[in-house]
C-alpha cells in the first residue's frame, strides 16, 4: 500500500466483541491504525501505552487511535483492561487485514510487523511509520503526519 492509495474497507471485532468498521469510523475523522505483534508483551505494551498517553494530542488533531494484532478478542480485552486503553483494539485473528496492509509475516513468533498507518477521512493512506524497536516513534510520527495534513 502506497501513500495516496484508498485503503480497502474492513471490519473486525474489538476487545469488547463489538463490530468495528473502517468506513464508519472515517466519518468521524482520520484513523491512526497501528499493528503490533502481540498483546501483553513488553514492546507492544510500551507502544500501546504511548498511544494512550497521547490521547489529548490525537484528540486535538481530530484523529482516532486504533490498535490491531492477530490476538483473539479475549486477549485484546485482557490487554486493554490491564492498561486502561481508551481506544479500540481489533482482533485480526485470521490475519486478513494484516495481509491487506502488507504487514503479515509468513513465519515466526512475531506474526505481524510493527507498523502504523495514518488514514485520512477520505479513506486514503496519508502516512506510514515503521520501526520494530523504537516504540514511541509510531505515535510521535503519526502526530507529525497529522499536523502536515492540516
Features:
150 residues, alpha/beta, 7-stranded mixed sheet, 6 helices, 7 strands, 35% helix, 21% strand
Give a verbal description of the structure.
With 150 residues, the chain is an alpha/beta fold. Helices cover 35% and strands 21% of the residues. It is built from six helices and seven strands. It has helices spanning 22-26, 42-53, 55-60, 73-83, 96-100, 137-149, and strands at residues 11-14, 19-21, 31-35, 64-69, 89-91, 115-119, 125-130. It has a seven-stranded mixed sheet. A hairpin with a 4-residue loop joins strand 1 and strand 2 (19-21).
Please summarize what this structure is.
This protein has 150 residues and is an alpha/beta fold. It has helices spanning 22-26, 42-53, 55-60, 73-83, 96-100, 137-149, and strands at 11-14, 19-21, 31-35, 64-69, 89-91, 115-119, 125-130.
Outline the fold blueprint:
Elements: E1 11-14, E2 19-21, H1 22-26, E3 31-35, H2 42-53, H3 55-60, E4 64-69, H4 73-83, E5 89-91, H5 96-100, E6 115-119, E7 125-130, H6 137-149
Parallel strand pairs: 3-4, 4-5
Antiparallel strand pairs: 1-2, 1-5, 3-6, 6-7
Amino acid at each position: 500500500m502506497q501513500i495516496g492509495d484508498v485503503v480497502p474497507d474492513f471490519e473486525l471485532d474489538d476487545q469488547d466483541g463489538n463490530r468495528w468498521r473502517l468506513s464508519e469510523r472515517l466519518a468521524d475523522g482520520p484513523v491512526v491504525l497501528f499493528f503490533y505483534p502481540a498483546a501483553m508483551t513488553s514492546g507492544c505494551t510500551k507502544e500501546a501505552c504511548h498511544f494512550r498517553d497521547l490521547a489529548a494530542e490525537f484528540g486535538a488533531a481530530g484523529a482516532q487511535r486504533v490498535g490491531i494484532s492477530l490476538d483473539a478478542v479475549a486477549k485484546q480485552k485482557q490487554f486493554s483492561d490491564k492498561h486502561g486503553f481508551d481506544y479500540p483494539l481489533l482482533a485480526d485473528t485470521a490475519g486478513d487485514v494484516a495481509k491487506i496492509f502488507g504487514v503479515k509475516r509468513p513465519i515466526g513468533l512475531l506474526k505481524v510487523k510493527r507498523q502504523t498507518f495514518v488514514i485520512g477521512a477520505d479513506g486514503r493512506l496519508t502516512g506510514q511509520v515503521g520501526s520494530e524497536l523504537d516504540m514511541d516513534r509510531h505515535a510521535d510520527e503519526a502526530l507529525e503526519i497529522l499536523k502536515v495534513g492540516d
